[in-house]
Specification:
Elements: H1 2-38, H2 44-55, H3 60-68, H4 76-80, H5 102-111, E1 116-118, E2 120-125, H6 126-139, E3 144-149, H7 156-170, E4 174-180, H8 189-197, E5 201-205, E6 227-230, E7 234-238, E8 258-263, H9 267-282, H10 291-294, E9 307-314, H11 322-333, E10 337-341, H12 349-360, E11 364-370, H13 376-383, H14 386-392, E12 395-399, E13 408-411, E14 415-419, H15 425-430, E15 433-439, H16 441-457, E16 459-461, H17 469-481
Parallel strand pairs: 3-4, 4-5, 10-11, 11-12
Antiparallel strand pairs: 1-9, 2-8, 3-6, 6-7, 7-8, 9-15, 10-13, 12-16, 13-14, 14-15
Helix pairs in contact: 1-2, 2-3, 5-11, 6-7, 7-8, 11-12, 13-17
Length: about 475
């Protein structure tokens, strides 16, 4: 009996000893994880959210943070290379022939891209019109076609564009295609082979590298940009990817979305954005780009365009959050109205304060979001902010049944921002995004007419009272708690 008691005692002592070791290991894990996250110098709310969330997942949390946690990308050498690549006229000083508003100066100071002009800005609504215009432009290409997409699917839309690119590449036109490795993961080598055989170049942005030791993967840092440049003179950008999911002529439930076609001096800035992304993703030397082909000498000058246009870029290679910053600054400058359309609405404190202050000040503040986005969790997070916005006087509309994918913003009658960036933490901090800031009453009026028709098709949210605790309020509160991680 004594031997049995001794065995049990030794067993219990072993468990206690093991528990002490595990407790010390867990404490060291928390200290290491907390220090690592704090050194990222993110917003306190986001930092605490990561620490508390991962503390609940001992050891596994470190692996999750390693894969998905905040990361910074260093691409300054590419920007310093602008002078060597013929773009030395982009300086820290606003050019004397540009319309240098405070917004324009903020944009240039945070991106290095000067205010510019366009001779044409045409709004393209939905995929069918966008794909038709894009295919027509590609068919007329004489020198080069540069494309960068988050989603490029090998379906009808993707195959039609690929075949158009194959035809041009076979005719001697230089084709460069930059695809996000996660968003375009459905694309296989077999689909790309005709392009490669025709002489086109294809590069993957942040390919998955989970099996590479000591190489931190970039799973959470994607290029969300949608950009096409033809011959350095014509460009397409906005929110529309290459997929049948955005082609209403083939899919009645296709996303509702907005794109634009641009000509003029501003295409030079868009060409620079593509060149930097291509050089970064491919590792090629900048000498691979023939400057005369990138920026033709007969392109319109800044003074030739009547439409003030400026390229806004943001991503984890910059801490300025340019697109986020410009939205907040434009809201604060507005005197009559602020209209915001976004598929994913997860605002930070600065944006939320700006929106509610504008509404409390008597401005016409409107928010249009999808009735149900393609992410249930993000939809719940967005609705968690409705009470505060409604109480301040913000008019909220929910669009449906089609998924709303438009990302558009209007301040008063002379400024709008349209592009790839959603109004959430992911777009403002993690993704590489591209938006256009247009300062032109005529183009803003056209966009206002488009958005007004969207508001008329949507359902206005008047009251959040009476909703179920379990079905609505608790899920929304939980989703909001995790919103800094979205």
């Amino acid at each position: 009996m004594l031997a049995l008691f001794d065995s049990v005692r030794h067993w219990l002592d072993g468990i206690a000893h093991l528990g002490t070791i595990l407790a010390v290991a867990y404490l060291l894990y928390l200290l290491a994880l907390t220090g690592w996250i704090m050194l990222q110098k993110r917003e306190p709310v986001a930092t605490l959210s990561w620490i508390l969330s991962l503390a609940l997942l001992p050891y596994l949390g470190l692996f999750i943070y390693y894969l998905l946690g905040p990361q910074k990308v260093k691409r300054q050498r590419l920007r310093r290379g602008r002078a060597r690549s013929g773009m030395e006229h982009y300086s820290d000083v606003c050019p004397p022939d540009a319309d240098c508003t405070e917004l324009a100066k903020i944009a240039q100071a945070t991106t290095g891209l000067a205010p510019s002009t366009a001779t044409e800005v045409t709004w393209l609504v939905d995929g069918a019109a966008t794909y038709a215009a894009l295919l027509e432009a590609v068919a007329q290409a004489q020198d080069h076609v540069h494309l960068e997409y988050y989603i490029f699917n090998p379906d009808h839309a993707g195959t039609a564009l690929r075949d158009a690119l194959v035809e041009r590449a076979s005719a001697g036109v230089q084709v460069r295609l930059l695809l996000d490795a996660v968003g375009s993961s459905a694309v296989r080598q077999r689909f790309l082979q005709p392009l490669l055989n025709a002489g086109a170049e294809v590069v993957w942005f942040h390919p998955r590298q989970l099996l590479k030791p000591f190489k931190r993967p970039w799973l959470n840092l994607r290029t969300h940009r949608k950009l096409v440049i033809v011959d350095g003179r014509l460009a397409f950008t906005g929110g529309i990817n290459i997929t049948d999911d955005e082609d209403e002529s083939r899919n009645p439930d296709a996303y509702r979305d907005l794109h634009m076609r641009l000509r003029g001096h501003v295409v030079r800035s868009l060409q620079l954005v593509f060149a930097e992304d291509w050089l970064y993703a491919s590792g090629q030397d900048h000498s691979r780009f023939d400057i005369a082909r990138l920026w033709p000498s007969d392109m319109p000058l800044r003074g030739d365009g009547a439409i003030n246009a400026q390229v806004l870029v943001s991503g984890p290679d910059s801490g300025w959050e340019t697109i986020h910053r410009l939205h907040v600054a434009a809201i604060q400058e507005a005197r009559e109205r602020v209209w915001l359309v976004t598929p994913y609405f997860v605002p930070g404190e600065a944006a939320r304060m700006a929106l509610t202050s504008a509404a409390l000040g008597g401005l016409d503040v409107r928010l249009l979001v999808p009735k149900m986005s393609d992410s249930w969790f993000v939809t719940q997070a967005a609705r968690s902010y409705f009470d505060e916005l409604l109480h301040a006087g913000v008019k909220i509309y929910e669009y449906g049944p089609r998924m709303l994918h438009t990302k558009a913003f209007i301040a008063d009658d002379d400024v709008c921002i349209v592009g790839s960036a959603n109004f959430d933490h992911r777009s403002f901090r993690l993704n590489f995004e591209l938006s256009m800031m247009i300062s032109d009453r005529g183009r803003v009026a056209e966009l206002s007419t488009l958005l007004q028709s969207e508001f008329e098709r949507a359902t206005r949210v008047h009251d959040q009272a009476g909703r179920s605790l379990w079905l609505h309020r608790l899920p929304e509160a939980f989703a909001r708690l995790a919103s800094p991680l979205l």
